[in-house]
Amino acid sequence: MDFERSLELLWRDRGEARQPTRGRKPKLTLDQVIATAVALADGAGEATVSMSQIAKKLGAGTMTLYTYVPGKTELLDLMVDSVLAERDLPGPGDPRPDGWREQVRLYAERTLAVFRAHPWLRSTSMVRPVLGPGLMAGQEYVIAAVSGLGLEPRKAAAAANSIEIYVQANATLFAETAQVEQETGQSTDAWWGQRSVFWEKYFDVERHPAMTRIWESGGYDADTCEAADETFAFGLERLLDGIEALVTP
Prior knowledge:
Elements: H1 3-10, H2 30-44, H3 51-58, H4 62-65, H5 72-84, H6 100-117, H7 133-147, H8 153-184, H9 188-194, H10 196-202, H11 209-216, H12 224-245
């Protein structure tokens, strides 16, 4: 993989990314190639997307695509960053919600929405992330949200990282749920419904008294989607409470 070529393509708005130079004037654009690849991945998962499929969809020869992007690895980087950019978070100087907590909630809301819309995004590595403008815009936004709290720099960075990791982890779970439902054609609620025999026949209330008390008190009454949203919101608010406690007299 040509790492610098990948960066050049990701940050093509900062300079002139190399375009096809031989033969007739190109009929495609790199953005068209990326958008087509994303649409195919949304339908069947990124692992099933091939350069030949993309070319067929665009009415071009497979080898033509390699004049726009070196290969599947670089294309996946471009796909990931393209959908992360869909969050369209406010940049420096743009209007944003009042208060740092509302700003974080906007980041979380838009990140979850992107992962739900593109379930294949769950394969994105935050250990070795795609260093494109979509990712960096999100990081800049969260850092800006917490930077006015008066935290020392390392704590501000840790707070921002904690928020990003929490949101990313939950977004990945939501994306996995969407992908499994898409692949199986069965909702998560239906999957649990098929396993009602477990609770009726195998669940031992004496070995699980805490769970039983919560169950009998209505703690598990929500459907799986509602419960997931409530769990995410609860955890995010407690995380923000903890950060706020560091700066509250």
